[in-house]
Write a structure and sequence with these properties.
It is built from six helices and twelve strands. It is of the alpha/beta class. It folds into two domains: about 120 residues, 3-Layer(aba) Sandwich (Rossmann fold); about 90 residues, predicted glycosyltransferase like domains (Thrombin, subunit H, Beta Barrel), CATH 2.40.10. Helix 1 packs across helix 5. It is globular.
Length: about 240
């Protein structure tokens, strides 16, 4: 795969002690023209964050990174005055709902599944790499590529999701709609028995990745199915 040079390359630290995850994410970022730094211990991560000549734009973190301090590692990163990079956590390393709440209080920017397919990795991280161009949602996002249809006016279109949260959905498309466009969406989460339907508006647009929608109205059954899917995503507990 040839490298693609972006006009604004970013520096991303990928911190995971599993080589498979670390290498997949680093390679995907480098192929898109970004500078990826792979580390496999907490000490190495903190060294990168504290380096006086290093500007880091994003950190993607395994919460069980050795020596396994978890939330303490996040607190240590937040305490580094020179490190203002957003922090995205690998969702499979989260052990409980209490950790999700604690991470939210600590200001974690988002979550990503470590088994995200290579061609979705950069698109899923783009809202954190270029935060000024996106309306980032505060609730946890599940990175997933599932079919979705949406209707605006008399037009019906379809595509695949980039990520999904309790508050909205990002859609991969080369023809995003204008911001604030009102539309209706329909999709089914993996393992679900019924379609989820919601009204939404376009919250952000990125010509390279697609568009983000904010839900404005969603029925009780659809809300329950969506909440259960997003909540259940975070406790695969990849590591003991």
């Amino acid at each position: 795969m040839p490298a693609v040079t972006l006009t604004a390359a970013r520096t991303v630290v990928v911190a995971d002690d599993t080589a498979f995850v670390r290498d997949r994410f680093s390679l995907a970022l480098r192929h898109s023209g970004h500078h990826a730094i792979a580390v496999h211990t907490g000490d190495d991560l903190l060294a990168q964050a504290r380096a006086p000549d290093m500007h880091v734009d994003l950190i993607v973190l395994d919460l069980r990174l050795p020596p396994g301090r978890g939330l303490e590692m996040v607190q240590a990163l937040k305490a580094v005055a020179s490190c203002t990079a957003p922090l995205v956590v690998f969702s499979g390393t989260i052990a409980s709902a209490d950790e999700v709440r604690a991470l939210t209080r600590l200001g974690v920017a988002g979550y990503i599944n470590e088994y995200t397919s290579p061609h979705h990795i950069v698109a899923s991280l783009t809202p954190h790499l270029f935060p000024d161009n996106h309306n980032r949602r505060s609730s946890p996002r599940v990175t997933c590529a599932i079919p979705i249809s949406y209707r605006f006016g008399n037009t019906i279109a379809s595509g695949f999701t980039l990520n999904l949260s309790q508050n909205g959905v990002a859609i991969r498309t080369t023809s995003p709609l204008a911001p604030k466009t009102v539309l209706k969406v329909r999709f089914r989460v993996p393992g679900g028995h019924d379609d989820i339907e919601a009204e939404a508006r376009v919250a952000w647009v990125d010509r390279l990745t697609g568009m983000g929608l904010e839900f404005t109205e969603i029925g009780p059954a659809s809300r329950s199915a969506l909440d259960a899917f997003v909540h259940g995503h975070f406790f695969s507990n990849r590591k003991a």
